[in-house]
Amino acid sequence: MARPLISPSILSADFAKLGEEVRAIDEAGCDWVHVDVMDGHYVPNLTIGPDVVKALRPHSQKTFDVHLMVSPVDMWVEQFAAAGADIITVHPEAGAHVHRTAQMIRGLGKKAGISLNPATSANTLDYLLEGIDLVLIMSVNPGFGGQSFIYSQLRKIEAVRKMIDRQGLDVLIEVDGGVNPDTARQCVDAGADVLVAGSATFKGGPSQYAANIAALRGEGT
Ligand code: DX5
Ligand code: ZN
Hints:
This protein has helices at residues 18-27, 50-56, 74-83, 98-107, 153-167, 181-190, 199-202, 209-216, and strands spanning 5-8, 32-38, 63-69, 87-90, 111-116, 134-138, 172-176, 194-197. With 221 residues, it is of the alpha/beta class. The protein has a single domain, classed as Aldolase class I (TIM Barrel, Alpha-Beta Barrel), CATH 3.20.20. α2 (50-56) runs parallel beside α3.
């Protein structure tokens, strides 16, 4: 399969030593660092704020891939940009004017992502795609790590791949939720460029991270 980029979700890291964990996945060869921001309102969980992103920033030079599951979202964009996010991804349901939110993210010099929940249609992207850098396809309902992959999302990956290629756009497809070496391969075959993996990266502790990441890329160990 094509070689995907791997973006470990630090939601599955040891929160008591997040800096060390970010360094460990960096050294283990991850491509990006995925930060899941949840507000207890848009999703039923509370996680990481901009101060934590700022504190983690010196621990890795890799792309900080910040996934905002917060509503309303616009008020947080600037703070996460200032904290060191490189990519900021938002959900269309989390704000009244998602096109404007994407413009705001790009206006801050960051890459803009739009995330589609499992029940959200690929058509939501119709008037957004040319103004963004990334589509994050959720293969679980957002809120928690460790859930099972929802297979119907493979069709959505294929549909979004076609939309992007037809328009000749430079937009990456990232898949988030329930990604393991088996589902990773199916996502890449369907057209994914970037895979988020929490449980599958962090299982077994730091000595396993490099092998876990390699397995997600489809490389033997
Ligand atoms: C879910 C988050 C995911 C999640 C992935 O709302 O967006 O990034 O942490 O975790 P795993 O890989 O364990 O499904
Ligand atoms: Zn995520």
